[in-house]
Write a structure and sequence with these properties.
Oligomer: single chain
Distance between the termini: 36 Å
Number of strands: 8
Strand order of the largest sheet: 1-6-7-8-5
Low-confidence stretches: 120-125, 197-204
């Protein structure tokens, strides 16, 4: 399974990167390699390919560094110190600095105490919003159902105790209309309830996303640096892929290096390399 498939884009022409499996290494590890789809088709893009061997350590350790920086962030933490923490590790040795705009935006979110929303909580935010919408709709439907039931009770009383108020035909027509409305409300309430319960079934994609976030966050927090190859052997690649999909929106590759990472919440970090100076 190509864990970065669908996330990588060419830093030259903007085309999506295509994935294939590289040859097996001596230890049995077979990394994925990603190349510009336009270059493969027309051979007119100068971009180089990138392999999981360099890509996975960079991305996974960068996310790990963000999580650790969040956990250890204090009011006295300076921007330069924060940047050093994000670039801690030999996989970032060739990075000169992070573009100021994206770095400062994340730093300010940390200062305001909002970084729990900065990277890997987009799935939780969406879940929370969806749950709130469902709860609001459920409340409105329950209120409407009570109104319909009261109207039905009044209609019955009117028909039973006032012979001249309403004809049998009109009573039956109105009764059918109210009972049909109550039936539709009940059906919708049942759909909402089913959706809420299905949200937590083991086969549900959203559950997989939540589980992957939990597993991967613990993995990334638990070690000083992430051995990506070892991690991919220990953790199901589906879990890693789901986690990345819940965190990352887009990764731009230029000259075989990570040029930028855009997270699901819109924050983007661009990397300037020493060789580009």
């Amino acid at each position: 399974m190509h864990i970065f498939a669908g996330l990588l884009y060419c830093g030259y022409c903007g085309s999506q990167m295509q994935s294939t499996i590289d040859r097996e290494r001596a230890d049995g590890y077979r990394p994925s390699i990603y190349a510009c789809s336009r270059k493969r088709r027309f051979n007119d893009c100068p971009n180089k390919y990138i392999s999981d061997v360099t890509l996975a350590p960079f991305v996974l350790n960068y996310i790990a560094n963000i999580i650790k920086a969040q956990n250890n962030f204090g009011k006295s933490t300076q921007l330069a110190t924060f940047e050093r923490k994000l670039l801690r590790g030999e996989m970032f040795s060739d990075v000169d600095h992070i573009e100021t705009i994206g770095l400062t935006e994340m730093y300010e979110m940390l200062k305001r105490g909002h970084l729990s929303d900065a990277v890997y909580s987009s799935a939780r935010i969406q879940d929370s919003e969806a749950d709130q919408i469902a709860a609001d709709e459920r409340d409105l439907l329950a209120s409407e159902r009570r109104k319909k039931e009261r109207a039905l009770d009044r209609l019955k009383s009117l028909y039973l105790y006032n012979d001249e108020a309403i004809s049998e035909r009109d009573y039956l027509v109105e009764k059918k209309s109210l009972t049909d409305s109550i039936g539709k409300i009940d059906k919708r309430l049942e759909e909402i309830e089913h959706s809420s319960s299905h949200h937590f079934t083991l086969t549900d994609e959203e559950f997989m996303t939540k589980a992957s976030v939990f597993i991967m966050t613990n993995q990334l927090q638990g070690k000083r640096f992430i051995n990506a190859e070892q991690l991919l052997r220990q953790v199901d690649t589906r879990v890693v892929k789901e986690f990345l999909a819940s965190v990352v929106q887009k990764i731009v590759i230029r000259d075989g290096k990570v040029a930028s990472i855009r997270f699901k919440n819109g924050l983007e970090h661009k990397f300037l390399y020493k060789s580009e100076e």
